[in-house]
From TrEMBL:
<dbReference type="Pfam" id="PF00172">
    <property type="entry name" value="Zn_clus"/>
</dbReference>
<protein>
    <recommendedName>
        <fullName>Zn(2)-C6 fungal-type domain-containing protein</fullName>
    </recommendedName>
</protein>
<dbReference type="InterPro" id="IPR052400">
    <property type="entry name" value="Zn2-C6_fungal_TF"/>
</dbReference>
<feature type="region of interest" description="Disordered">
    <location>
        <begin position="59"/>
        <end position="87"/>
    </location>
</feature>
<feature type="domain" description="Zn(2)-C6 fungal-type">
    <location>
        <begin position="20"/>
        <end position="50"/>
    </location>
</feature>
<dbReference type="InterPro" id="IPR036864">
    <property type="entry name" value="Zn2-C6_fun-type_DNA-bd_sf"/>
</dbReference>
<dbReference type="InterPro" id="IPR021858">
    <property type="entry name" value="Fun_TF"/>
</dbReference>
<dbReference type="InterPro" id="IPR001138">
    <property type="entry name" value="Zn2Cys6_DnaBD"/>
</dbReference>
<keyword id="KW-0539">Nucleus</keyword>
<dbReference type="Pfam" id="PF11951">
    <property type="entry name" value="Fungal_trans_2"/>
</dbReference>
Amino acid sequence: MTSGTPERPSRRRHIKSRSGCKNCKKRKVKCGEERPRCRNCSRRGSLCDLADDSTVPDAPALQPAVSPPAPAPDAPDSQTTSLPLPGAPTTIYDGAGLGGFTVLDLELLHHYTTSTGPTLSSDPVTRHYYLVDVPKLGFSHPHVLYSILALAASHLGHFRPESRQYYYAEATARHTAATSIAAPLLSNISVENSVPMYCFSSLTMFISFANLKNDDPFFDASNVIPGWLTLFRGMRTILEANGRAMLSSSIAFLFRSRGNVNDKGGPQQQQLTDHEALREFQDYLDTCTSDEQTRQPLLSAFGDLRTAFTSFYAKEQQLGGNEDKTRSIFTWLYKIPDGYIDLLRQKDSDALCILAFFCVLLHMLEHHWWLKGWGTHLIDGIYTAVGDAHHAWIRWPIQEIGWVPPRRGGLYQITTPAS
């Protein structure tokens, strides 16, 4: 006998999924898990979190190259600096886009526009260029953007000593990515890429100055001179490419004279500002060698350096301020002949003595964070490299900097020049 109650059809079983979107889970409805946005979220116009899993599949790992050290227990800001910091992209740029930027990159870009950029120049026109125009250029030229981030990381490392190694590692990672993009372009400077390449070179110069001094040993067997000294060779190549077209480009205003002392420091003005030590070394160079190929680069480099000193010592030029002084050292680095660079690579004592005089100017600009410590760092290496006979010629730079030579045999090795 059959029952009068109709038999209910059995429900089809389905496998439950725990990978649905958060909106569907909250509403307790089945999520179709369509990507990049499930059907339910599309119908309701809601933001679906499944998009996060599909739009950045190749994002680099968020592991820092160097873990930030924990601050000392008695550090006043230990509650904030002990928090883990996000890491840097560890992959080399492959030209596929600007994906893979991290929270740290956003912090670095913000730090550049609020803190680092204003430190690069005291001239309002040049400062505006670094604050506004350079970041804009970075959005279409990744090597410029990566260099901005690297410089900001170096700046943070300078003022956060408890995490210095971490920030310098992050700066290196980003500048390596920038260099991998820029390097192939150096051999083909064109009118179109000259402006971003100049920006990359100028930022690289600041980064090189800002590097830890112990990471760029001055008298290493494979790196005789500091990196920033040779970087100006690259900047000169860019500026002089295509018939000096850069001087009529969109950034030509950066190269126009704004009353720089180098344009009006003639022989009479130079004589008034020359220290006796400069004149004595000039007389020495005039007679130190009969080899014209060696003497001419030395005379040219030292003559331009004496002109740079005018920016620092001429009373009537004090109104020019620090901008004229900074420009004067950049002008000297830009103008020094290749023959002088070659002599430095050979550790020629006379060439090193000229660099010792340049250390005085670097020391006088140590209020710039990116120049901090370079004067004493270089004079230390120079003193070690030159022979005892040349220690007398760098006595005045040593005194101006306030550096103390190492003691050997119980006596300080500073003598009087032979007459």
